[in-house]
Design brief:
single chain, four-stranded antiparallel sheet, 1 helix, globular
Amino acid sequence: MRGLKWLLVGLVVCALSVPAFAHFQMIYTPEPALDKGKKITLKLVFTHPFEAGHTMDIGKDEKGQIHPPKAFGVMHKGRKKDLLKTLKPIEFTSLTNTGRGYETSFKLRGMGDYIFYFDPAPYYEPSEDIYIEQITKLIVNVGGVPTDWDAEVGLPVEIVPLDKPYALWVGNVFRGVVKRNGKPVPYAEIEVEYLNHDIVGNAFAKEAKVEAPHPAFVTQTIRADANGVFTFGIPRAGWWGFAAVGAGGDLRHNGKELSLDAVIWVHAREMK
């Protein structure tokens, strides 16, 4: 019996030592800074972007039922437009599985900033026995005219950018304020990941752009200051995701812990 006991202990230790990479709700479009208005495609995928790893069924509960998103819209020059009914289900393929996401298209009709925001139904994560709900923002600009990029949408939790999230050079910093119901969240924990694989159709490309030298580099973790402000230096061109984990505070859903997270995606370019 003693040998069995220590075998079980060893298995638990090994299980705990396996790195758990971060979940990220994505709103993806190839280019966030456009010269003129056009129709763009947006893909909404809940995944692990650095590793192109396991992709989750958005809104799936502990019983396997998929619930529809709560909200999806765009804010332009202070006006919001509900786009929830435009979402169409898709199957998105990672390097390990296929999960359910959504896709839509939107016609950008004027100059300025377009803040796309998405609030999915909570997803049950069996490995942690919790629910995760990531309220996500992506900002697209037309013509270089700044209008809304630093505006608050008024979401339950959100990251309000202090730097234009679509006009960053590699080597710039990106700063944001984590807010809950419009108020800063002191010392919020922010997970950061790089979109390390191109997206081709409804799948991740197999080839990675960079290789992490150690599992700790896959998901980087930083803290906001007492005013909810965080700063991150951008080391490489492409898309970067920032997730303020648990920004919603102590919440429950279906009798279990609910992690209400605020997510924003930013894009950087090489200076040539």
